[in-house]
Amino acid sequence: MSGQSITDRITAAQHSVTGSAVAKAVCKATTHEVMGPKKKHLDYLIQCTNEMNVNIPQLADTLFERTANSSWVVVFKALITTHHLMMYGNERFIQYLASRNTLFNLNNYLDKSAMQGYDMSTFIRRYSRYLNEKALSYRLVAVDFTKMKRGIDGVMRTMNAEKLLKTLPIIQNQHDALLDFEANPNELTNGVINAAFMLLFKDSIRLFAAYNEGIINLLEKYFDMKKNQCREGLDMYKKFLGRMTKLSEFLKVAEQVGIDQGDIPDLTQAPSSLLEALEQHFGFSGGKENKRSLRCQQS
User: Fold this and answer.
1) Inter-residue contact 60 to 85 (CB < 8 Å)
2) Domain 161-289 belongs to what topology?
3) CA terminus-to-terminus distance, the chain
4) pTM above 0.90, yes or no
5) What is the pLDDT of residue 265?
6) Closest CA relative to residue 195, chosen from 109, 120, 144
7) Domain named ENTH: which ranges (predicted)?
């Protein structure tokens, strides 16, 4: 369907009558038009998150209400708008989402009105799970991994071993939920899903950067860890290698749908000898000292 539907116009008019400019903007960002939310409506909503007189819970609730719509287009665009505000809005927006016990309950969502509805419903379910996981991550660590300070003196590089071993699994879960979107180039067939994929792509780059720096920190600390920490660290590193393969597949899709190659990082696999050294060190922790490093301290 092209253009705003009669329902869209009536809903927007109702909000005009009641004076709810925020609700009207949400309605306009989540119309039945098969295209991503318009920039002007997203920009207005971002501005709203920075206005102290705007009720953030009410804004979020209006977006949640739109996900109860029967049209996959409206639901998908409500998720995209929410994701956009999590990324670019004032931090108090994601703080509020993180404070809620539940966000999107769309695991059984299905638009049966047309064949495209069936296809897109699959991605709506996956996308909603990622946004839930993104909010949960913030709830657990009080920071958005995609926005944290990076570099040699960044958060993940300077974190102590105990906190690092607790934080890395949270990043891993969010990373998994993102890659579970699993769209192929021939499934990115309209402006709505393309808008979602672009936001996921941007999150994937920033999330992986934090994840990668956490792994670098882990490797730097590994040979000084206690044996039980070595076991956890080795398991996390093995999982990291598996996720790199899956991320590489995700980035190939990004390249195939026209995302600038300069924006796509080069994922260089660590040599297999590194994993062998880690495994050898863990194996020697109960016996001889590994000549390459300090023994794992017995816990």
Assistant:
1) no
2) Methane Monooxygenase Hydroxylase; Chain G, domain 1 (1.20.58)
3) 63
4) no
5) 80
6) 120
7) 14-145
